[in-house]
Amino acid sequence: MSENQNTPADASTEVTVGSQAGTAVGPAERFPDPGIPEHKHRLTDTDPRAARRAERTVTLLFVLSILGTIGSIVAYVMVPPDGTASGVRLSTLLIGLGLAVSLLGIGIAGIHWAKALMGDREMVQERHPLATNDADRIVAVKDLNDGLADSGVVGRRGVLKGAFFAALALFPVAIAVPLIGSVGGDWNISAFKHTMWKRGTRLAIDPSGRPIKASDVTVGSVFHVIPETTEEFRETHEWITEKSKAVVLMVRLNPEDLRTDQSPEGETWSHEGIVAYSKICTHVGCPVALYEQQTHHLLCPCHQSTFDIADSAKVVFGPANRRLPQLPITVDDEGYLVAQDDFAEPIGPSFWERLK
């Protein structure tokens, strides 16, 4: 392609193609304007019955969205978590299904509306100076009004319009109701300063609750640990809350690999290389459970904070700014691993009452 440089810089100076490279040719050999392809009518453009079917389909999809929103609110109110794992799963499933139906209804209805009912003619608007005169403004307003009327939003299809606005207006309610319902929750942050662990509480395997003997823990092995408690208590709502604060990861190292084996007061917090630390990351509270045996590093999968188990679970990488709280352990007369006391510091991420 080359540009005819011998003509004035006006509408006639367009890109042309010569018979040979580098040869300028006249206006007669310019590319013809292909224009807009011939408009192909859809079935809904030519068949009123098809248009009515499409309108009913879109309306039903919006109504389905409304029902999904209402269903999620009903599930939140009528099926609250009862403290058991199955109860939490059922409540979450029902609320999630309601929100999914609500969003899918709006999305699919909008797509079908655009493809079947809204105008689909291609239009061309010539470029012009940014500053327009009054006549151009009048034409632009008329084009906008024509397009709005052609979309079917105003003037006709009143039922569809009502379903559309109702679905959009109701969906935020499905999100607002759970948020408002959580305002009255427990905001007592001091509850995180203490857990179920106390002197003599046996360490048990999560989730079976079977107590662990020191002889069962081999070098390099990893155990997910919870406090031993009764079967009846594990079926209560309180157990879910208490367990979430008391979960522990226990590892056995060679005793000579431990670089720090004592509390600040000089008490031994481990037993023959067995150490136990809170599983709750001190960054934002994700479960820390990826253990690398060769380096003794414990990795948080959320933001890659890394803790050195051999050195009091100190932070060696990542955004966490404090080590994992250690659970001081020992063994009882029967050889079972037991806690010496609760964690020496609050578990979980930093909050506003702590500097770190």
UniProtKB/TrEMBL annotation:
Ranges for domain Rieske come to: 245-338
Source organism of the structure:
Promicromonospora soli
Name under which the protein is recorded: Cytochrome bc1 complex Rieske iron-sulfur subunit
Location of this chain's protein in the cell: Cell membrane
Q: Where along the chain is composition biased (Basic and acidic residues)? A: 30-49
Obligatory cofactor(s)? [2Fe-2S] cluster
Native organism taxonomy: Bacteria, Bacillati, Actinomycetota, Actinomycetes, Micrococcales
Bias type Polar residues, positions: 1-22
Q: Which residues form the signal peptide?
A: none
